[in-house]
Design brief:
Helix content: 25-40%
Strand content: 5-15%
Number of helices: 10
Number of strands: 10
Strand order of the largest sheet: 1-2-3
């Protein structure tokens, strides 16, 4: 018997700064769509970056969302409390022969990329593909260097992974940067051998997001268009790990006066600052184009 369970949406901010209008748009869209579908809305705190995530930012997230009139189910999932959940998927990928450690520092990788020339491939976010030769390192040497305490990153062998899964697609009800919608063909190879974990952090954004979505039963992912291309990596990991494929909706971005997306790194005006100036939740809906 097939159960008609309500759809599950989630809003998943990182507590590495204060929320701005772009976050408000995404949070409100998730809340609106969950309400319209008779679904559930979850909140997840993506706090694996221990150097940038702070408790005061997390507290501000709850305050800002409540001010916007958004209600979410309890308990809130905090990624840093679930590191053990990511070890099993990593072990599975390792057992399939799809992972390898690389040992170069960021400075060494930058040097290698320079040596490769200006035509060296870059991922959709502009970062260079991994240029080193760790994939061909002998297993005994890998084990020796890891045991010695060297820093390392665990990377997905993209070519081997794609050979195992074959072509992949996802259902898109929003649109990508070039208007992609409907059934979208995934292109994980555009990202090269992505990092899945590091010695000091047993997960990465790509790995944790797919594991978390599956663990929480998320069926509908509504997020900004800046994450459209990352969905290719997420579809690949879902296929490799036997995880469900959600439905995706990538929404428009709110841009600043220079045409750039709002960002914490560029000091976009925070919701708490707008609130202090006297703005209301209704103003935020209007400012995000949702009135």
């Amino acid at each position: 018997m097939t159960l008609n369970l309500p759809p599950v949406f989630r809003f998943a901010p990182s507590p590495n700064g204060y929320l701005h209008l772009g976050h408000a748009l995404s949070a409100l869209l998730n809340a609106d769509r969950a309400a319209a579908a008779g679904g559930r809305l979850l909140l997840r705190i993506e706090d694996i970056d221990a150097t940038r995530c702070r408790p005061e930012y997390e507290a501000a997230i709850y305050e800002d969302l409540a001010w916007l009139g958004i209600q979410w189910e309890q308990p809130v999932r905090r990624q840093s409390a679930h590191y053990d959940d990511y070890r099993g998927p990593l072990a599975k990928l390792d057992a399939l022969g799809l992972m390898y450690p690389s040992f170069e520092s960021r400075a060494e990788i930058a040097r290698l990329v320079t040596e490769r020339g200006s035509n060296w491939p870059r991922d959709p976010d502009g970062a260079p593909h991994y240029p080193g030769d760790a994939k061909s390192m002998k297993p005994v040497e890998r084990a020796r260097r890891m045991a010695s305490g060297e820093p390392y990153a665990l990377r997905l062998d993209m070519a081997a992974a794609l050979a195992r899964t074959g072509p992949l697609t996802w259902p898109e009800t929003g649109a990508g940067p070039s208007g992609e919608t409907g059934t979208v063909v995934a292109d994980p190879s555009a990202w090269g051998d992505v990092i899945l974990a590091r010695k000091e952090t047993p997960t990465s954004y790509h790995l944790s997001v797919v594991v978390d979505d599956a663990a929480q039963g998320v069926t509908n992912i509504v997020r900004g268009r800046d994450l459209f291309h990352a969905t290719s990596v997420h579809r690949l990991l879902q296929a490799l790990l036997g995880l469900p494929r959600p439905r995706y909706h990538h929404h428009r971005l709110i841009l600043d006066s220079d045409g750039r997306k709002l960002s914490k790194s560029t000091a976009a005006t925070a919701l708490r600052e707008l609130r202090a100036r006297g703005a209301t939740a209704a103003d935020m809906r209007k400012e995000t184009g949702l009135d």
